[in-house]
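Worked example 3 (structure in, sequence out).
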């Protein structure tokens, strides 16, 4: 019980600290995308849904010389794309700084980085999930000096 009260107090201090944050001198999207570097690098290397959701091909399709018959079930391997040496330098290393100053976004318009899918059926929970990522990292860091 005593432990729980102590934690409540520290959480309040932590939230007060966030409210008092005056910025780091960077403005607008620069600062936002820099803060997102860890949040982006994590699903690049470890996408929570590695094959995204399965899709059905609605009509016979020729994809880069490969004929895909109608009604074939296809998956997009976001896990492999995130580790592709043609797209990423040193892909197996966890390097959030690769996203610093980069305009690669998580919202499905950069096909080398699609942990939430892309296009019409992109994840609708993307904004909520992004905030939960931040909350998770912040809660974890909160317990370290
Ligand atoms: C770590 C968190 C999450 C990840 C990695 C994730 C990932 C995905 C992926 C890969 C898809 C398939 C997109 C495609 O095939 O192009 C998807 C679809 C979807 N997601 Fe998420 N998601 C997350 C969180 C959420 C949350 C929090 C919600 C709701 C509050 C949500 C709701 C949905 C729905 C409804 C779809 C189906 C959209 C459609 O088919 O039109 N997701 N998600």
């Amino acid at each position: 019980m005593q432990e729980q009260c102590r934690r409540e107090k520290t959480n309040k201090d932590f939230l007060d600290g966030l409210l008092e944050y005056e910025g780091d001198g960077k403005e607008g999207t620069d600062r936002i995308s820099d803060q997102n570097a860890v949040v982006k690098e994590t699903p690049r290397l470890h996408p929570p849904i590695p094959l995204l959701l399965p899709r059905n091909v609605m009509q016979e399709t020729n994809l880069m010389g490969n004929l895909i018959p109608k009604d074939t079930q296809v998956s997009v391997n976001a896990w492999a794309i995130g580790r592709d040496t043609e797209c990423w330098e040193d892909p197996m290393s966890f390097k959030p700084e690769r996203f610093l100053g980069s305009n690669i976004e998580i919202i499905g318009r950069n096909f080398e980085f699609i942990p939430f899918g892309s296009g019409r059926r992109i994840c609708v929970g993307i904004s909520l999930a992004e905030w939960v990522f931040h909350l998770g990292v912040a809660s974890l860091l909160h317990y370290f000096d």
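Notes: Residues 1-7, 27-31 have pLDDT under 50 and may be disordered. The chain is about 40% helix and 5% strand.
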